[in-house]
Amino acid sequence: MATQTEKQNPAFYALIAALVVMSVGPIALMLATSFKTNVDVYDASVPAFFFSPTIKNYETVLCNFLWYEADHVDYCDPTFGRALINSLIVGLVSTGLTLTIGCMAAYALVRFKFMGRGTVSMTTLLMRMVPPAVLLVPVFGIWTFQYGLDQTYAGIILIYTAMNLPFVIWILQSFIVQVPIQLEEAARMDGANPFQVFFLVVLPIIQPGLAAAAIFTFRIAWNEFLLANALSGRSTRTVPVTIVNSITEYDINWGVIMATGMLLAIPPILFTFVASKQIITGMTAGAVKG
Amino acid sequence: MSVAIKANRLTPYMFLAPAGIILIFALLYPIGYMIYASFLDWSPSQRIGQAEFIGFRNYVNLWGDEAFRESFWVTIRFAAIVVTLEMFLGVGLALLLDRNIKGMAVLRTVFILPMMIAPIVVGLMWRYMYHPTVGIFNRTLKSFGFEGIPWLSDSTWSFIAIVIADVWQWTPFIFILALAAMQSLPRSALEAAEIDGASEWQKIILIKLPLMMPVLIVTLLLRLIDAFKVLEVILVLTNGGPGLSTEILALRIFRTAQEFQELGEAAAMSNLLLMMLMAITIGMFAYSRVQEARVARQRAAAEKDDD
Q1: Which residues does chain B have within 8 Å of residue A288's beta carbon, measured at their own beta carbons?
Q2: What ranges do the domains of chain B cover?
Q3: What are phi and psi of A251, to 5 degrees?
Q4: Per the domain annotation, does A283 fall within a domain?
Q5: Which of the residues B5, B8, B13, B23 would you substitute to probe the A interface, choosing the one with the greatest number of A C-beta atoms within 10 Å?
Q6: Exposed/middle/buried for A6, CB within 10 Å: 0-12, 13-18, 19+?
């Protein structure tokens, strides 16, 4: 394979630079604005990127986590801090639950030859087809009147787990198929029961798959707005819900809201830089391999 | 001994049970429930048992509802325009950038960022950029002495604004899939063309694009399905306005349920949206089946030739 790089003409690099600026620009602008005071935002003479930065916006947003008293914060509004904790709880618990349950199901489907891979990928695709907006009415009705799970963490976690399961099962299957069956047979010979084989032999091998699935699941739970908005109560609101609530007001404090948005965007951005390869694999698997 | 065998036979079911239970109770049941609810006159303060059964009246109402028809067309227009633009840009860029250059991995990482961050945040930053006075677009225009553009307050411009935001967010998806498809093309075909003296354009039109077609069509359909689901970005940017100019169906369902408290009607709309997406998905399956059959036939023919 020819892996050495070829010389390209300068226009080519100009195009690439333009593309990078276009895709990162808005994010960089948000980051820059989150370090601006509201006065600077409205002052046309202050440039978009080069100004004296301040962390006041972050202090305002995270005021109930500060170990010191920020003197510009007159009244500490704990809404966002609480939402951040809620988002973390919902994201982490639903990811853990989805992975555990999804793993077991994927293992059973592969090793005990229940349904073909075709059935699972069909379910995954059908699930991908269902917009969250379509689930809004029934989930609201059922969670409120039949399960009694409205305004609780459990309700939000349950729907996220259900939404993510088909995809997680589908992606983990492709990793489990590659685990050599001889390894499991050897463990069985040594007297391990099926659960021990699964947890002590199979799980450690498919760790890369678990990582990819975890990122996808966490991202959806972390970013989702619609169902969280319908199901959460005052004390269980997640970050996207609080953001939408705060922008319906007329005079928007752009610095503060951008700091909030930035805090919501940071985990997915970190994941992207740490595991872009797994993410791209997960994204392309559906279309390229069929 | 017999207990052990029994336990072994039960194992697969025990592994599958939790997933099965959750999917049935939290996914299949709600979808069935939605279909039933679309025949009810139902407001959020009522239990579903108290809601009145009104047959197809929700659907008939929707049919006669001018606002619904308008938002139906907005949805179709939005999906068609956005997907077309993204396909041309994404595939074009993939063709341009399919070379051995340093730092391609970094470039791909940068390109997937817009897709990874929350749609709410994407809406937020575009709303800031479109802002009539503090937004970067109007400030730049004004600094060159032009009039500012009413990005989010004019019905034509606001439609353009949501299209731009969506193109920004999702073109990389097409780009990455197209690039992956291109890099898995058989080198032999391209080399043969090169030896025969094909120009760069001929290679693209006669070899690369036809060979990539199966992947491109699946990509197109996946993106089309997702375009019907866009909601949060538009909610934050325009909330469907001004008027109904950017109120796509998903947003209308949300507002019907949330603001107008008409759960039955929202369910009927959900049902229609779901049926539309089902048609696209079935089309996709049918296409991939046909494609597989064709490949199998070709392979069989090729093997016969070898004998």
Answers
A1: 177, 180-181, 184, 215
A2: 69-306
A3: -90, 105
A4: yes
A5: B23
A6: exposed
The pair of three-digit structure tokens given for residue A150, joined into one six-digit string: 């409205």
List CB contacts of A88: < 8 A, sequence separation 6 or more.
none
DSSP code for B133: T
Q: What is the DSSP letter of A36?
A: S
ipTM of the modeled complex: 0.84
Q: Same domain for A36 and A170?
A: no
Same domain flag for A120 and A200 = yes
Residue of A129, A137, A127 whose CA lies nearest to A160 = A127
CB contact under 8 A, B118 and A141: no
Q: Which residues of chain A does B100 touch, with a Cβ-Cβ cutoff of 8 Å?
A: 2-6
Nearest to A176 by CA among A117, A127, A220: A117
Q: Does the B69-306 domain belong in CATH 1.25.40.80?
A: no
Contacts of A246 in chain B (CB under 8 A): none
Residues A23 and A119 occupy one common structural domain: no
pLDDT digits over A239-277, tens only? Answer: 888 888 888 666 778 888 888 889 898 988 888 888 887
pLDDT: which is higher, A289 or A83: A83
Largest CA distance in chain B: 89
The number of residues in chain A equals 290
Residue A2 domain flag: no
The token pair that represents A259 in the structure block: 């700091």
Nearest to A135 among B13, B30, B139 (CB): B30
pLDDT digits (tens, 9 = 90+) for A9-52: 777 788 888 888 888 888 988 888 888 877 777 777 777 777 77
DSSP state of A130: S
Report the residue from A136, A159, A243 with minimal CB separation from B120.
A243
pLDDT score, position B206: 80
B 62-121 residues inside an 8 A Cβ radius of A: 93, 96-97, 99-102, 105, 107-114, 116-121
Domain ranges, residue A26: 10-65
Contacting residues for A215 by C-beta, under 8 A, at least 6 apart: A271, A275, A278, A279, A282
| Residues 239 through 258 of chain B touching chain A, CB cutoff 8 Å | 249-251, 253-254, 257-258
Q: How far apart are CA A276 and CA A273, in angstroms?
A: 6
Query: Is B192 in the A-facing interface, judged by CB distances under 8 Å?
Result: no
B102: DSSP letter: T
Beta partners for residue B94, in sequence order: none
Could you tell me if B170 lies within 8 Å of chain A, comparing CB atoms?
no
Measure CB to CB from residue A269 to each of B31, B117, B251 and give the nearest one.
B117
* Whether B177 contacts B93, CB under 8 Å: no
Our CA-based measurement puts residue A42 at a distance from the nearest CA of chain B, in whole angstroms, of 6
The count of structural domains within chain A is 2
